[in-house]
Amino acid sequence: MKLKASILDDKSVKRALVRISHEIIEKNKGIEDIVLVGVKRRGFPLAERIAQNIEFIEGIKVPVGSVDITLYRDDLTAISDKPEIKDDDIQVDVKDKKVILVDDVIYTGRTVRAAIDAVFHNGRPKMIQLAVLVDRGHRELPIRADYVGKNIPTSKSEIVSVQVAEIDKEDSVNIYEL
Is residue 37 classed as helix, strand or coil in its secondary structure? Predict the structure, then answer.
């Protein structure tokens, strides 16, 4: 793989997450009944950071859970056409809550659909919203993000690589050519 472009550095990632945090507060007219659910792997640390930002802004801690679905990212590798939920216990109460799913990249929409299934398996939320660090386009399902850190038009032959400090020791978003 060949590096095509560096899209976000650590400061840009931080700014995007702070902006998303403010947008969540504004769109929901506060944080009452808000629950963040990060899609493992990299969506979970992003959800925790958004929760920290919201706590800093509003002075109230927002519950954070996670959902673990089988690795399914068309930009990395395809294990199957249907992502499978590995562990649907998301560790937070979602019944009658405003659930905000958090993921690193949205591409086809299949991972998000699987995460939505997991949320409903845990209870009926008041609503579900989606926050992503990167929207790279190429949706196959009628799913869109409510909060986007950066829209990055890509070709299907490119790979969007998101690095987060909690897992990868740095924050960055890069595009690679195959």
Answer: strand
Global confidence as pTM: 0.91
- In terms of CATH architecture, what is 2-177? 3-Layer(aba) Sandwich (3.40)
- Whether the CB-CB separation of 27 and 146 falls below 8 Å is answered with yes
CA atoms lying within 13 Å on the CB side of residue 131: 32
What are the tens digits of pLDDT across the range 55-70? 999 999 999 999 988 6
pLDDT score recorded for residue 87: 61
Domain boundaries, the chain: 2-177
Rounded to whole angstroms, the Cα distance separating 155 from 131 reads: 22
Please name every residue paired with 150 in a beta bridge, in sequence order, or none if there are none.
Answer: 134
Picking from 90, 98, 92, the residue whose alpha carbon sits closest to that of residue 125 is 98
- Name every residue whose Cβ is closer than 8 Å to that of residue 109 and which is 6 or more positions away in sequence: 139, 140, 141, 142, 143
Q: pLDDT digit string (tens) for 72-113?
A: 444 444 445 666 666 667 889 999 999 999 999 999 999 999
